[in-house]
Write a structure and sequence with these properties.
Layout: H1 2-10, E1 15-20, H2 26-36, E2 41-46, H3 66-75, E3 80-82, H4 86-89, H5 108-111, H6 115-130, E4 134-138, H7 142-154, E5 160-164, H8 184-189, H9 191-205, H10 211-223, E6 228-236, E7 251-259, E8 262-270
Parallel strand pairs: 1-2, 1-4, 2-3, 4-5
Antiparallel strand pairs: 6-7, 7-8
Helix pairs in contact: 6-7, 9-10
The structure holds adenosine monophosphate.
Length: about 280
C-alpha cells in the first residue's frame, strides 16, 4: 500500500481517504462519494482495529463481508481498498501509541477506556501508509471526529479532514454496522435514540436552556422503551466536549444506549431559541 501511495504521489495525483471497519451501509457510501470529490485517487481502508476494543467488546464478532464491500465500493468509484490483516498492522513488539490528554475523558471515552487511543493510533498509522491529502469521517462518531481534528492540528499533519452528516434509516435510526445485531423488538427500541435527540432539539428550540432538564427529558423518553439501558446522555460543548449547564449557544447532545446487548450511539446539535 505504501508503494502504491508513493507511486500515485509521484505521478502528481492527490489522494482522498476513507477509513472504515467495513460491512458497508449508506453512511459509508456517503463518505466515499464525498471522498471522490477531494482527490484524484480514492482509497478506502477496511480494518477492524483490535486496539480500540476492550476485551469485553465485539472485536471477535464484528460483522464483515469483504466481497460485498468490494462491489459496493466499486459502485461509488473507489480506486483502491486497503484491507490489511491484524499482523500486518501490529507485530508482536508493537508499543507506540497516540494518546490525547483531554478529549478521551468525555462521553464514550469514559465507558470505553483506551478506545480513542486505539483510534488515534490506527488512524495515524493509516495516514502514514496511505499519505492522503484529505480524509473523510462521519459525524455519527462525533467524538472520534473531534479527536482526529485535534490530533491533526496538534501533530501538524498536512491532511484536510472532512465531516459528513449522519446518514439515517427512513425512521431516523443512525445507520451502523452494529444495527445488524438487533432483533426485531430491539430494532423498535433503537428508535429511542433518535426520538430522544429530536425531543432535545425541540425543547431547546422552544426555549428550554437548562441542560439538566434536557437530559432528564431525553433519558425518560429512552427509558420508556423496552430493552434500553442508558450508558450516558450528555449536553456538551461541540469542540471541547465539556458538559454545559445552559444551552445559550449551539451545544451537542450526545448519547450512548444499550439496546439489549448492542451499544448504540447518536448525537445532534441543539440550537437555542433566538432571544
Ligand atoms: P465504521 O466502519 O463504523 O468505523 O465507520 C467508518 C466511518 O463511517 C466513520 O468515519 C464513521 O463516522 C462513518 N459512519 C458510520 N456510520 C455512519 C452514518 N450513519 N452516517 C455517516 N457516517 C457514518
Amino acid at each position: 500500500m505504501q508503494q502504491e501511495a508513493r507511486r500515485l504521489l509521484q505521478t502528481g495525483k492527490t489522494i482522498a481517504f476513507v477509513p472504515t471497519m467495513g460491512y458497508f451501509h449508506e453512511g459509508h457510501l456517503a463518505l466515499m462519494r464525498e471522498g471522490r470529490k477531494h482527490g484524484d485517487a480514492l482509497i478506502v481502508s477496511i480494518f477492524v482495529n483490535p486496539i480500540q476494543f476492550s476485551h469485553s467488546e465485539d472485536f471477535k464478532t464484528y460483522p464483515g463481508n469483504l466481497d460485498r464491500d468490494v462491489s459496493l465500493a466499486e459502485s461509488v468509484g473507489v480506486d483502491l481498498i486497503f484491507a490489511p490483516d491484524t499482523g500486518a498492522m501490529y507485530d508482536n513488539a508493537f508499543q507506540t501509541y497516540i494518546d490525547l490528554e483531554m478529549l478521551p475523558g468525555y462521553l464514550c471515552g469514559t465507558s470505553r477506556p483506551g478506545h480513542f487511543r486505539g483510534v488515534a493510533t490506527v488512524v495515524t498509522k493509516l495516514f502514514n501508509i496511505i499519505k492522503p491529502h484529505a480524509a473523510v469521517f462521519g459525524e455519527k462518531d462525533y467524538q472520534q471526529l473531534v479527536v482526529i481534528r485535534r490530533m491533526v492540528r496538534d501533530l501538524n499533519l498536512d491532511i484536510k479532514i472532512i465531516a459528513i452528516p449522519t446518514v439515517r434509516e427512513s425512521d431516523g435510526l443512525a445507520m451502523s454496522s452494529r444495527n445488524t445485531y438487533l432483533s426485531e423488538d430491539e430494532r423498535r427500541s433503537s428508535l429511542s435514540l433518535f426520538q430522544a435527540l429530536k425531543k432535545g432539539q425541540g425543547s431547546a428550540a422552544q426555549g428550554i436552556k437548562d441542560a439538566k432538564q434536557l437530559i432528564r427529558e431525553a433519558s425518560e423518553l429512552i427509558r420508556a422503551y423496552p430493552y434500553t439501558k442508558i450508558d450516558y446522555v450528555a449536553v456538551c460543548d461541540p469542540e471541547t466536549l465539556e458538559d454545559v449547564d445552559l444551552v445559550d449557544r449551539p451545544a451537542l447532545m450526545a448519547l450512548a444506549v444499550w439496546v439489549g446487548k448492542t451499544r448504540l450511539i447518536d448525537n445532534m446539535i441543539l440550537k437555542p431559541i433566538e432571544d
